[in-house]
Amino acid sequence: MRWPLARTKYTPFYLHSGGRANTLNGNGTLSRVPPPSEQRADSFVYDPDDPVPTIGGSQLGPKPTGPCDQRPIEARQDVLVYTSEPVQEDLEITGPLSVKLFAATTATDTDFTAKLVDVWPNGYAQNLQDGIIRARYRSSSSHPALITANAVYEYTIDLWATSHVIKPEHRIRVEISSSNFPTMIVT
Questions:
Q1: For residue 127, which of 167, 69, 84 has the smallest C-alpha distance?
Q2: pLDDT digit string (tens) for the chain, length 187 residues
């Protein structure tokens, strides 16, 4: 067997908004069309005393809970949400996943999280995969380097791999934040 599959075709999707992608009711969209130039950057305030909780997935603890509805998370102002138009035919997602994020923070170190979600026609938002990166490990896990506050850096967030079929009339969603607690960084 070969991994990734021989028929794998890497397909980029791009985040778009008018600067208000906060919550599932914001203006964040996801498409295969590269943005010509976004007018306003999206932003959120991260409060370490009120982290975005992990709902479902393989969270720490004795019993992983599997897929769960992410809408309670997507209602938070500290979660950026980007949603595609409904897919028209089965869309298989099989293989490694990653999110390339260009971001700045007022801190000298922080975490960035990303989550891939299958949104059903009834609104149910099923988590598929998630990942997290600490800013200081953006270039190397063995040579950490703090960042300069307010400078834009590129981060690659590994969402590991999956095999899932997005059904017709479902949407693809990506969530970006700075926490997914109690999920932790493994270095």
A1: 69
A2: 788 888 889 999 999 999 999 999 999 999 999 988 767 899 999 999 999 999 986 544 445 567 899 999 999 999 999 999 999 999 999 999 999 999 999 999 999 999 999 999 999 999 999 999 999 999 999 999 999 999 999 999 999 999 999 999 999 999 999 999 886 555 4
Q: For residue 25, give both structure tokens.
A: 């009711």
Taking the model in full, what pTM does it have? 0.92
Question: Domain 14-177 falls in which CATH fold?
Answer: Jelly Rolls (2.60.120)
Helices and strands, counts by H and E, the chain: 1, 8
Q: Rounded to whole angstroms, how far apart are CA atoms 101 and 80?
A: 12
